[in-house]
Specification:
single chain, 70 residues, alpha+beta, 2 helices, extended
Length: 70
């Protein structure tokens, strides 16, 4: 299980977002921890980068489906 706390601010109000991601695939969990140790980065960083890349890929496919070109 991976937990993260994040402080965000909007219009001068600081709020904190807390969320937890439960990894149901033990291989994925192990691989994340191995990569984290190998590259000296946090598991949270790896997860954030993976999610960011997935969202960018989904946006790219949507733009292709809609006929948009960058």
């Amino acid at each position: 299980m991976v937990s993260e706390n994040r402080c965000t601010s909007s219009m001068g109000n600081e709020t904190e977002e807390n969320f937890t991601v439960q990894l149901t695939n033990p291989m994925l969990y192990d691989r994340l921890h191995i990569l984290s140790a190998e590259y000296s980065v946090s598991v949270e960083y790896l997860i954030n980068e993976a999610v960011k890349r997935m969202i960018n890929d989904v946006d790219f496919v949507r733009s292709l489906r809609n006929g948009k070109q960058d």
